Amino acid sequence: RTPNYEMFLVMQTSVHIIFVQTFCVYVYILSHILLHYYAIMNMIIIDFSVIFEGLDESVALLPRHDERRVKTQLILKARIGKIVTAHLSVFNGVTTVSSVYGLPLVYQVSFSSIAICLMAYQIAEKLDNGTVDILFCLLGIGSCLQLWIPCHVGTMIRNKAFEVGDAGWTCGWHETPLGLMIRSDIIIIILRAQQPVTIKFIGLPHVQLETFSSCMSSSYSYFNMLRQYS
Q: Which residues span the membrane (predicted)?
């Protein structure tokens, strides 16, 4: 008696556990954390849009040590400080995510194209025989999704980070005398926002939709090669 059934049972159980862990734990937590920082950048953009709201522009023309001018400047500094703190938390948070999830993402990006290729090949072989392999179809869709989700969220964060710089430029600082009080701070934030906020790790390309497209292109090339020589 051979232990084939027991071996296949263990393999099937392992696949189920990996599937649940991937979509219910790993991908969910990663996307949830990244979307949290996406929401923070949305709040930064909102803060920029109301940074001069409720303040008297005429105080900018008062002497530097005037009480009303000092009070207004403190309010502006507090508002810009809130923006800076939130902006730095995004950079630090994404850096932490990169260090924690770096190795799994390297494995995920490196081997997804091969896995997707083999699943597509199995599906194509079954279709040639007039049958549809539902299991491999589901696994293929799942393999594409587990790569697409972090890449899509990574692209969202990158684009939103650039929007923070645009929000700083269009907040109206050049249209009001109050802008003179925090002009240098806003310029620093705009310059800082030009640095892309991306998930990166040694041996890992930036986790963006461009990476997903590259992996799918490689997978399709492998698939064509297998079909050609099979």
A: 7-29, 106-124, 131-149
Q: Are 109 and 147 in contact (CB under 8 A)?
A: yes
Q: Encode pLDDT of 37-73 as tens digits.
A: 999 999 999 999 999 998 888 888 888 888 898 999 9
Residue 210: name the closest of 150, 160, 165, 162 by CA.
Answer: 150
- pLDDT tens-digit map of 108-149: 788 888 888 888 888 898 888 888 888 888 888 888 888 898
What single string gives the DSSP state of each residue in 159-183? HHHHHHHHHHHTSSTTTSTTHHHHH
Rounded distance, CA 212 to CA 34, Å? 17
| Residues with Cβ within 8 Å of residue 187, at least 6 apart in sequence | none
Domain definitions of the chain by residue range:
4-229
